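Q: Structure for this?
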Amino acid sequence: MSNIRAIRGMNDILPDETPYWQFLEQSVQRVLASYGYGEMRLPVVEQTELFKRSIGEVTDIVEKEMYTFNDRNDVSLTLRPEGTAGCVRAVIQQGMLNVPQRLWYAGPMFRYERPQKGRQRQFHQVGVESFGIATPDMDAEIILISARLWRQLGIDDSVQLQLNSIGSSVARTAYRAALVEYLEQHAAVLDQDSQRRLHSNPLRILDSKNPDTQALLDGAPALADYLDEESRADFARLCELLDAAGVPYVVNPRLVRGLDYYNKTVFEWVTDRLGAQGTVCAGGRYDGLVAQLGGKATPGVGFAMGMERLILLLIELGVVAGTSSVADVYVVAVGDEAQRTALATVEKLRDQLPDLDIVQHAGGGSFKSQMKKADKSGARAALIWGEDEVAAQVVSVKPLRDTGGDGERALQQTVPAEKLQETLCAVLAG
RNA sequence: GUGGCCGUAGCUCAUCAGGUAGAGCACCGGAUUGUGACUCCGGAGGUGGCGGGUUCAAGACCCGUCGGCCACCCCA
């Protein structure tokens, strides 16, 4: 057993789970297309510099969670830890910013963290980004998309929208100073982590899980009081639009986000069904990012959702992801002659019924063992070619499951090849 | 990076004052000649994560290491 194993935190997704993935991916495609969003396919590797400049030098992601290495030309590359940076890079590089853009992408992201429930080192996100619209109607659109997707997936009762505005960077700087001043007076009460953050990233203290710290924050200056006029107005308008559209939300004045590029609107969709990693989707506005990465100043809003977490939720809630049994039909063929006939006939059948899933028995074996395989495949019917069938130039169609609810099983039928399609369809139709 | 729990057949787990391993499921074969499911019978499959230590003897005890799960940190 000292074989090669998968890298820690990088999981194989097996056929018993892929139906959930397909269900999620199809839902995502449908919903985003219905809002006029175009799909991007982006590289998994980018220059390290891109992430440093967008996510922020002092964030945990950049400081300790990136998979970074040098290529053969000694250029520092990084496996993308999130999608927005690469999307922005592409949109600048491809000259797409003359007009507003509505875009989305999906794929693997990489972060060197300790794996736990709902978190792995290779994980998958769907990202949705909108460029070129600065007004809060676009924030609302972005949120409506996510809300519709939850409905589509059947998990809308289990997720809650939390909303906040973190204002302009000027407003945030002023607030940060006030917050630090307050907290320094009570530094003794602060937990270790928060003390550390006091100077590196004080805003993050706001969403600390430590109850004592939270209690201390009750007396702290409020971010909302420091917001600039425009942020305040935009946030009010966003709330108004969400109210009108009937999307419930909770304003969480202590919601900030970890990535440096956000301003104004930030939001998270959270659930209490997944243990500690309850954020299933998160995003916000990033009006400065495009310019920061060298493009012409262009506002943006977007969000990312964690596919593993959504799938955990689908499983947890027992949302059925469309039953996908291995096959509709299993083909039994005993002997060389039978196998030859079966193979050729079944190919024709696939031409006629391309939506039917047909498994052809392979590997030989007795009649009995092939029948066992047919049963275990979950197929609803078996097609049987044995010596008798070959000699008589016919094929047997045998139902394997109860069709009605009455426990009655239809009888096996033996028909010439020309009648196969018709007979099989009749049997499958019950 | 920190902490807790865990590591025995493909899967879920057991046994025992420490004396060189077992069940269920799954898999393969059989129960009168060509028919699955239920039942019965049989079979294959484990250097007990790896390395070291204690002992006459270790899967069981100790140490280390690797891996898993959950939580902290952080984040989707």
